[in-house]
Design brief:
Layout: H1 18-34, E1 38-39, E2 45-47, H2 48-55, H3 60-65, E3 67-70, E4 76-79, H4 84-93, E5 103-112, E6 124-133, H5 138-154, E7 160-166, H6 173-186, H7 193-201, H8 212-219, H9 230-245, E8 251-252, E9 264-272, E10 280-286, H10 290-293, E11 301-307, H11 308-314, E12 325-331, H12 334-349, E13 354-356, H13 363-372, E14 375-381, H14 383-388, E15 390-395, E16 400-405, H15 409-420
Parallel strand pairs: 1-5, 7-8, 12-13, 12-14
Antiparallel strand pairs: 2-4, 3-4, 5-6, 6-11, 7-9, 9-10, 10-11, 14-15, 15-16
Helix pairs in contact: 1-5, 5-9
The structure holds adenosine monophosphate.
Length: 421
C-alpha cells in the first residue's frame, strides 16, 4: 500500500526534539512571567475577516498565503497566519481593558502560511508571541525589546543582531507614502511586476521585496525617519535612549518596514547570522490603531513574535540522551513477567520511570534494550532468582550489582530511589 506522507512544508516534531522545544517554551513562560505577561491560548481558526482587516488586504500574507476555506454554513474561515490579530480579538471580546490599564499577554503555538517551503520557511511553523496593550510610553517599547533579548540570551543565543526603525503614525506616514509613490513611479520600469502593482496597492511593501533591482530602487528611496512628526520623532529618540540605558545593542535600519500593515512607530527585527537566507528570527512593533480598527477601545499596543523553528536551528545542538529511564525490569520467564507487570506499574505510580519487556527475550537482548532506554538500573528476574527469592539489581553506570529479597521488592526499590533524590 502506498504510504501517506505529511503535507509539503509541514513537519513533525519528533520525540528526540521535543525536550529542546519544551525547554524553550518553559524559558519563555518564565522570562515573560517575570515581566508581568500572562498566557492566553487562542484558537488556531478565526473568521477570515479578522486577518483581512488587521494584517491588511494587500499584504502578501492576505493576498496569497492564507489557508482559507468556506465552512458548511458558508462562513469564511482562516487558519491563523499570525497570532496578534487573534490575541487582540480575544482582548476586545472579553473586555480585558476593563480589568487593568495595561494588559500583557503571551501565546505559543502553530501558524499557517502557504509560502514556498525552503530552509527555515515552512507552511506550518510555530511562534511565541508577546503583546502589551494599554501602554503608549516609550519605556514600554524598550522593555518589550529588552524582554525579547533577555529571553534569547537565556535560551543560549549569543550571536544575534537587533535592528529598529520607526514607521511613523497616521499623521506623518501619509506624507512619506506620497513621496514613496512618487519615487517608485519615477523608476517604475526598474521594479518587478509585483512591485509595479504595489505602487498603487501598498507601496511600503516594495521595501520587503527580495528582487535585486527593487532593492536598488529602495536604497535610493526617501528615508522614513526624516518624515516623522515631532511626537513620533521624540518617541523614537526616547526608545533608543532607554535601550541604551538597558545596555541593549541595536542598529537603526530605516529600510526595515516589516510585512504587516498595522505597525506604527517602533518596529524591530532580530536576525541571526547562522540561519542562511531566512535569517529573521523574531520581529515586532507598535500597533497603536489596531485595537480600535478591530472594533475595540482606543488602546495602544506593541508586540513581537519569535519563530520557534528558526530559534531551534540557530541554537547549538546539545548532545543529550532524549530518553531517561530509572529502572528496566528484565523478566526472563513467564512467572517473572507477571511480577514485572505489577512491579513496573506500581513503580510508575510512585513517580519512578520504569520499563519492562513482555516478550521474554534473552538476558543479553534485554540488557541491550535497557542501554537503549538509557536506564540507570536493571532489575533481573529469572527462574534462578525466583527459586532463591532474591533478584539482582544492576547499577548500569557503576557496572556492579546487589541482591534484593523478592518480598517487599516494590518498597525496597522505592527506598533506593528515595535515597538518591
Ligand atoms: P512575522 O509574523 O512575519 O513577523 O514573523 C515573525 C517570525 O516568525 C519570523 O521572524 C520567523 O522567525 C517566523 N516565521 C515567519 N514566517 C515563517 C515561516 N513561513 N516559516 C518559519 N518561520 C517563520
Amino acid at each position: 500500500m502506498e504510504k501517506i506522507t505529511a503535507i509539503k512544508g509541514i513537519k513533525d516534531i519528533l520525540p528526540q526534539d521535543s525536550p529542546a522545544w519544551n525547554q524553550i517554551e518553559t524559558a519563555a513562560r518564565r522570562i515573560f512571567g517575570d515581566f508581568g505577561f500572562r498566557e492566553i491560548r487562542v484558537p488556531i481558526m478565526e473568521k477570515t475577516e479578522l486577518f483581512k482587516r488587521s494584517i491588511g488586504e494587500t499584504t502578501d500574507i492576505v493576498e496569497k498565503e492564507m489557508y482559507t476555506f468556506t465552512d458548511r454554513d458558508d462562513e469564511l474561515i482562516t487558519l491563523r497566519p499570525e497570532a496578534t490579530a487573534c490575541v487582540i480579538r480575544a482582548y476586545i471580546e472579553h473586555n480585558m481593558h476593563n480589568y487593568e490599564q495595561v494588559t500583557k499577554l503571551y501565546t505559543l503555538g502553530p501558524m499557517f502560511r502557504r509560502e514556498r517551503p525552503q530552509k527555515g520557511r515552512f507552511r506550518q511553523f510555530h511562534q511565541i508571541n508577546a503583546e502589551a496593550l494599554g501602554d503608549e510610553q516609550p519605556q514600554c517599547d524598550a522593555e518589550i525589546i529588552f524582554m525579547l533579548v533577555n529571553f534569547l540570551r537565556f535560551v543560549g543565543l549569543n550571536d544575534f543582531s537587533l535592528e529598529i526603525n520607526s514607521l511613523g503614525c497616521k499623521y506623518c506616514r501619509p506624507t512619506f507614502s506620497r513621496d514613496i509613490v512618487a519615487h517608485l513611479s519615477s523608476v517604475e520600469k526598474n521594479l518587478c511586476t509585483n512591485c509595479q502593482r504595489r505602487i498603487r496597492t501598498n507601496p511600503l511593501r516594495v521595501f520587503d521585496c527580495k528582487v535585486d533591482s527593487c532593492g536598488e530602487v529602495i536604497a535610493n528611496a526617501p528615508n522614513i525617519l526624516s518624515y516623522l512628526c515631532s511626537h513620533c520623532d521624540e518617541h523614537f529618540k526616547l526608545v533608543r535612549t532607554f535601550l541604551e540605558d538597558l545596555k541593549v545593542s541595536y542598529t537603526v535600519n530605516s529600510k526595515m518596514v516589516r510585512g504587516l500593515d498595522y505597525y506604527t512607530k517602533t518596529a524591530f527585527e532580530v536576525t541571526s547570522s547562522n540561519l542562511g537566507a531566512q535569517n529573521a528570527l523574531a520581529g515586532g512593533g507598535r500597533y497603536d490603531g489596531l485595537v480600535s480598527s478591530l472594533g475595540g477601545p482606543n488602546v495602544t499596543g506593541i508586540g513581537f513574535a519569535v519563530g520557534m523553528e528558526r530559534l531551534m536551528a540557530s541554537l547549538p545542538r546539545k548532545q543529550e540522551h532524549d530518553y531517561q529511564t530509572d529502572i528496566f525490569i528484565a523478566a526472563l520467564c513467564e512467572k517473572a513477567q507477571k511480577i514485572a507487570f505489577l512491579l513496573t506499574n506500581e513503580l510508575r505510580s510512585s513517580g519512578i520511570k520504569a520499563q519492562t519487556d513482555y516478550t521474554a527475550k534473552s538476558l543479553k537482548s534485554q540488557m541491550k534494550r535497557a542501554d537503549k532506554l538509557n536506564s540507570s538500573y536493571t532489575l533481573i528476574i529469572g527462574d534462578n532468582e525466583l527459586e532463591d527469592k532474591k533478584v539482582q539489581l544492576r547499577d548500569m553506570k557503576a557496572k556492579n550489582q546487589i541482591s534484593l529479597p523478592l518480598d517487599n521488592l516494590t518498597e525496597a526499590i522505592k527506598n533506593i530511589f528515595k535515597e538518591k533524590s
